[in-house]
Amino acid sequence: MDALEFEQRLNDLWAERPQGSQPRAALARKRHELAKRLIKAASEHCRTPEDQEVIASWHGWHRPDAIHWEYATDRRCTGIEDFLTWLLAQRDEWMDGAVNDCEFADAQHILLKTRIQVGSVKQIRWAVDLMQSPKGIEALAIVRRTTPAPKIPTGAEWWIENREDILQALQNYQQSGGKGVLIADLDGSLRQTVSGETFINDPDDQEAMAGAVEALNTVPYECIGCTNQLGVKLKHKTLMDTVREQQRTLELFPKLNAILFCPDDGETCWCVQQDRFWRISDDYPHATIHSFRKPGPGMLFIAMSLAGANPEDSMMIGDRPEDEAAARAANVQFQWADEFRTKGLRGATAL
């Protein structure tokens, strides 16, 4: 790489520094003139690909609070060329260097503001302890050296499953873009009655709506159904009829991993799979502060917990205002079901 190309590469790296109201933006502004001088000196003196790669890999371009900046402004450093020489000589130290106090405090501040949104009470407490432990804070600080605005998982299961190597898991998470789940309303969104009746009162009186199976099969991640079933409380059908109804729906839509339903005014939630069913709300006592009946977000929180997914990476489809309201309350994206059946999942590649 010639001098001009290398200079441009370093300028591009420095352009990714914190700006505006981002943390450390004011510090980055203080470093600007020094950075420009360092870029100019590096383009003139670094001729070998090895030296160029070392300087381009320096995390100080993204992190204006990197401890090496302090060395550059220290009286021991008599010129920018000295700083450049020092960086090259200390490559082993700073390429794998320990997190400095400023980086640690910055990462700690971010994690203290991050709220675990999905999981049981026990899982959430455990996840918060892991996230805010020195190991978790240091892992985020290291990730921020190359990712100024990293994505942080808000599902408890993610932290628990990755507790042995949080750093590697966080690095992988940035590349994967997180984990999402599609939460699908059923009646009027995916299925309809064969008889023409408004509600399904017989497990076999249902069929897939046009385009529903095809659209669901294109979704690149886990799918879970979510339906209000007040007919059980009103005695239009029994609990077992409702369970068999959902199991028949699972046969119609093999893409669905499970179906959640609320048979009352929001007090309980049941989970149905092909081979079993259970009152899953017993496992989430903290979620009773939310109504399990849409527009309450309780069922959506349980769906994300089952999938180990985060709200910001998830989507709900539905056909009624209460579906949209439930999605908003759970902080997940929403798409109208008729659009989903005809055009597929909006933003699927981004999720």
TrEMBL record:
Lineage of origin: Bacteria, Bacillati, Cyanobacteriota, Cyanophyceae, Oscillatoriophycideae
Organism name: Phormidium yuhuli AB48
Coiled-coil stretches: none
Keywords carried by this UniProt record: Plasmid
Name of protein: HAD hydrolase-like protein
Signal sequence segment: none
Matches recorded under InterPro entries: HAD-like_sf, HAD_sf, Heptose_bisP_phosphatase
